[in-house]
Fold each of these.
Amino acid sequence: MNRVLTLLGIAGAAILITSASIAQTLNTVKTRGSLSCGANGQLPGFGLPDAQGNWKGFDVDYCRALAAAVFDDPNKVKFVALTAKDRFTALQSGDVDVLVRNTTWTSSRDTQLGLNATGVNYFDGQGFMVRKALKVNSALELNDAAICVQQGTTTELNLGDYFRANRMRFKTVTFASVDEALAAYDSGRCDAYTTDASGLYGVRLKLAKPDDHIVLPEIISKEPLSPFVRHGDDQWFDIVKWAHFALVNAEELAISKANVDEQIKSINPEIKRLLGAEGNFGEQLGLTKDWVYRMVKHLGNYGEIFERNIGQGSPLKITRGLNSLWTKGGLQYGMPLR
Amino acid sequence: MSHSTVSGGARGGGIGAFVRDERAPALPAPAATIGGFGWLRANLFSTPFNALLTLATVALALLIIPPLVRFLIIDAVWEGADRDACLVSEARPVVGACWAFARDRLAYFVYGSFPIPERWRVDVFFVFLALSIIWILRIDAPRRDLAAWNFFVVLPSVSIVLLSGAKLIGLAPVDTTLWGGVLVTIVVASVGIVVSLPLGVLLALGRRSTMPAVRLVCTLFIEIVRGVPLITVLFMASVMLPLFVPPVWTPDKLIRALVGIALFASAYMAEVVRAGLQAVARGQYEAAAAVGLGYWQLMRFIVLPQALRVTIPNIVNSYIALFKDTTLVFIVGIFDLLKTIEVARADPQWATPVTSTTGYAIAAIFYLTFCYMMTRYAMRVERRLGVGLGR
C-alpha cells in the first residue's frame, strides 16, 4: 500500500512540475538559454534549412525575433521540425515554447486544443495558377476547366464550394501528393493548379518554364496563418502577440534594420515608446525596455522580414497583397503601444 | 573429346590387319559448344523457355539502362550556381540529373545543420567508425580480441563525447537537433545494429528458457514490440512521452528515437536467433550437458556458434531492413539523409523539374551502396564458415 502511495505521490508531483513549468514559459526559456520553436522544415520561404543548415524563412524569423527580444541574440533558437500531424501535440506537451508553422487560425484550434493564436502574421488563402497562354485573368473565367489538386485536403473541398457558389462547371484531377499533382499540371493534363497562394509561388519554380505561368488574383478561402502558444500562460501569450504588433508598427513608423539606431533618437513619441526610449512597455511584458529595438536591429521590421523571405528579395516573389499595411490597403494593423 | 582410337584399315580380319597403335589427333569440339557462342547456347538459350527469358531480360535492360545512363550521366548538369543551370534552355534542350544541386548541397546531406567550425569532429567520427568496423570484421586483422572492446566500449563513448561535445576538454556542445544527414543515418543504423544482436540473443534465449517468468517477459516484449508499427513506436516516444513526464526528465529527441529503434530491431532479431536455436539438433544440447557444461557454457561454446552460423543470411536481412527503416525517424522531426534531401529539393534556389529526381537518385545510390556492402560481407563470412555445406 505504501508503495502505491509513493508512486501516486511521484505522479502527482510530476503533474505539478509539468503544469508549473508550462505556466512559466518565459522563465523556462531564460533558464534554458534558448527558445524552442516549432517550425516547418520543408516550406520554402517560411521555414527551411539552407545549404549550411541554417534555418531561413518568414516563420523562422518570427522565432528569431522572439529570441532577439528575450536574449538580444537571434541565434538562441532551437528549431524543431514538426509535421502537420504532430505540431499541436508538440506545443501542448511543452516540447516547443511557440509554434510558428504556417498554421491556420480556426476556432477549434483556439479553443478545443488548448491553444491561443497570437495574431495573423500572414493572410493566406487558396489561389489558382494557370498557363499564361490560356489568357485567363480571373478565376471566374475557369468554367469547364480541369483542375489539378491534392487529394483529401481542405483545398479540394474549397474548390468545390467556390465553383458551385459561382455556378461554374469543373473537373478535378486529384493526386495523393503535391509532386504528382504538379507534374500532371506541368504536362498539360489540367488547365489550372490550386493550393494555398503562398505555396503556389514556391511550386511554380518547380515547373519546366515558370515564367509561362501566372497566379490568378482571386483568393477563394480564408487561411489566416498565426503563431500559437499554450493556454494558461498569459505573459507568454502577450509577448508573442505583441512581438508581431511591434514589428508591424515598426514598419508603419518606417523604422528599419538600417535606420533603427537613428530612429531611437527621434522626437516622435510613438517611435520613442516603441523603441523603449520612453516608457517601460517591454518591462510590462517581462522583457527589457529595448525589446523592440533588439528585434528590429537583428531582423528588421515586418516588411523587411516579408520581402527578404517571401517577397521581392526572395525567389518566391510573393506580392504583399492582403499583407500590406492597413495604410496601404492591406490588413496588417499593429495595435498601439502605449 | 575422345574419338575412337581404333579405326578399321583393312577389314579382312586376317593377320595383316592394320591396328592403329597411337591416338588419332583430337578433333576440335563442335563449333556450337565452345567459345562465346557455345557458352551462350549452354547458358542462355538451352531451352525455348530459357531463350525467351533471356530475350525478355535483354529487352528490359535495353528499356531501362540507356535512359538511366542518359539521365544520370550524359544529359546531366555538373556545374552551376543555382536553378538556372538545370533549367531547359536553348543551349540545353534536354536536362538530366542536376548534379550541380547535389554538389552545392553535399555538405548539408552529410552533416545537416552541424555547426560548420565543428564539422571536423564528424569527420573524425566517420574515420574512427570505419577503422573500427574494418578491425572487427577483417579476419586477418591483428589483435582482434581488442577490436571487440574497441567497438563496443571505446567507440561508443568516444563518439558520444566527440559528437555531442564536452566542455571539460574544450569541445563545444552540439545539440542533437543540429545533427543531420548521413551522420544521423549512420548513428541511428549503427546503434540499432550494435544493440539489436546481443539484446536479440538474450531475448531469444529468454523466450526458450524453462523459467516461466523470464519466458513470459521475453515473449510479451517480443510480441508487443513486433506487433506495433515502427512509426507508432517512434511517434509515441517523440510525442506522447513528454506529455507524461516533466520537461526536465524528457530525454533528447534523438535518444528517444534511438531507444525506440534499438528495441524494435531487438525484437525482430530475437525471432531470427530463435529460429537458429531451433535448428541446432537436440543431441548437441544433450551431449554438452553430458560432458558437464553449464547453461552459459553450453550456449556460448556449443549452441550459439551453430545457431548464429545458420542464421547469417537472416541476420543480414534484418540489418538491411533496419538500415533502410532508419529513414522513418524523419516522422519525429529528425533530419536523416532522406529528410535533408527532401528539405533541399523544396528550396526555391534549386527548384527545377529534375531536382527531386536527382535528390532521390542520391538517396538510392547511398542506400544501395551500403546495403550491397553488407551483403558482400555476409557472403564472404558464409563462404568461410561453410554455411549450408552440411545441410
Note: Residues 2-123+224-328 of chain A form a domain with the D-Maltodextrin-Binding Protein; domain 2 fold (CATH 3.40.190.10).
Amino acid sequence: MNLFVDALAWLTDPANWTGAGSIPQRIIEHLWISAVVLVIAAAIALPLGGVIGHTGRGREPAVMVSGGLRALPTLGVLTLFALWLGIGLQAPVIALVILAIPPLLAGAYAGFESVDRRTVDAARAVGMREVQIVGKVELPLSLPIVVGGIRSATLQIIATATLAAYVSDFGLGRFIFAGLKTRDYGEMLGGSLLVIILALVVDGGFALTQRLAVPAGVRAARTAENTELRSGPTRPRAVVGRPIIEGNQE
Amino acid sequence: MIEFRGVTKQFPDGTVAVRDVDIVIPPHKTTVFVGSSGSGKTTLLRMINRMVDPSGGQVLIDGTDVATVDPVRLRRGIGYVMQNSGLLPHRKVIDNVATVPMLRGTKKREAHAHALELLDTVGLDRSLADRYPSQLSGGQQQRVGVARGLAVDPNILLMDEPFGAVDPIVRAELQQELLRLQGELGKTVVFVTHDIDEAFLLGDQVVIMQQGGKISQAASPAEILAHPADAFVADFVGADRGKRALHLTEVDGRSIVVDADGRPAGVLTS
C-alpha cells in the first residue's frame, strides 16, 4: 500500500506539474508520438486492408504477415532499430508502427469482408464504379469494424509508447525509466498510472466513436430485430464493440 | 431488341453455365427465363448488363455488341431489380431510388423529386421516403427495388427472381402490380424465375431452360401448353397433370372445368 501512497504523493506534488519534464508536457509528448504512429500505420494498413477486403485477394499473405508482425517483441524491435538508427525518435516510431499495423489491417479487411456481398453486387449492377462501391457502400458499412481496429491499435500504441523513453527523452515512459533508475517507485508507479488513465480515456472516446460509426439504417435494422425477437442473451449487437477477428478464420 | 448469338459461358473451373444459346428478346414485351437452379437463367440475364461476360458468342442490344460498351455506362442505362431488393441498407429509401440518376449527374433536388414520383408509380406511400430499407416489409422493399430500377427511365428492365423472397400473397400482389406497370410503361422486361406459374402469368415470351444452360423451348405460354417441344418441357409445365390437365363436366346444364385432381377450376362461358 505504501507504494500507492508514494505514487499519490508524487502525482499530487505541484512541482511535478510545471516546468520542463512535467506531467502535462509528458502527456502531450505521449499523445503526440501515439498520434504520429497511428497516422503512419493507418496510411499503410487501411488502404491495404481495404484493397484486400474489396477484391478478396491477398488475404492469406496478409493474415500471415500480420500474424508474424504480432509475434515480434516490440522491445526487441526497438533495440534493433535503435542500434541501427541511434538515439532519438525514429526507432520507437518504427517499432510502434510495426506494432500497430496488424490490428489496423485486420480491422480493415474484416470490416470490408463483413459487408453483404449481395449489397455490393447490387451496387455494381446498378452502375457504380469500383471506387464508388468502396467509398459509398463498403466503407460506410464496414466503418464500425474499421474503427474497432483503429481503437485496438491506438490502445496498444499508447500502452507501448512508454518504450520511446528507453532510447529518447520523450513521453510518459520517462517517469517509469527514471523512477526505476533512481529507485523512486512512487514516480514509477505514478507514471504507470498516468499511462493507464490516458489509455482508458482515449479508449472511452473510441468506444463512443465506434457506436456513432454504425450507419443509421443499420442501427434501425438492429432496433427492429431487437423489438421483434426479444431474445435476451442472444440479442444481436454483434458489430458494435466486436473485437478484431483475426487468425481464426478458415 | 436484345439478341443472344451463339452465347456460351464456361467458368474457369470448367463448369458450363450456358451452352450455345440463340434467342431474340423482342422490345416492349416481357420475356421470362424459367428453369430450375443450375439452368443458367440468371447467367443469361446478367450477360445483358455485363455483370457476366460470355466466353463465346455475342449479346447485342439494338444491334450493338455489349462487349464494346463500357460496363458502367451500360449498367446505368439498364434497370436492375434483384431478389432481396439489393437496396443499400445505410441509405434512406429516397436516396436508394435516386442512386443511379445521381451517379449520372442529376442534381439531388431533381433526383429526389423524381424519386417521389416513382414511389407513386410503384404504389408506395411518399411517407416511406425517409425510412431505411430495414424498416420496410419485404414486399415494400421489392417495390423500392423496382422504383430504383425505373429511376433512369431505362428501355430495358432486368428482374432476377424479384419476387422470390416474399410470401405468396404479397407475391401475387407484386405480380399484378408488375402487369399493370408493364401495361403503362411498355418496357423490354427480362425476368428470371423458377416458378412456371409466374412465368406463364407475366411472360409474353417464355423461355424454358434445362440443366447445363440449354434452351428447351421459347414461345408464348399458350404455344408451350399446346405444343410442348419435348418431354422435358411437357413435364416441366405439367401439361398432362394437376391443375393444367382440365376437362369438362356437365352440372345442371352448365359446363364446369375440372382439373386432374377433380377440383373445380371454373365455369366455361360461351
Note: Residues 37 and 198 of chain B are 16 Å apart (CA to CA).
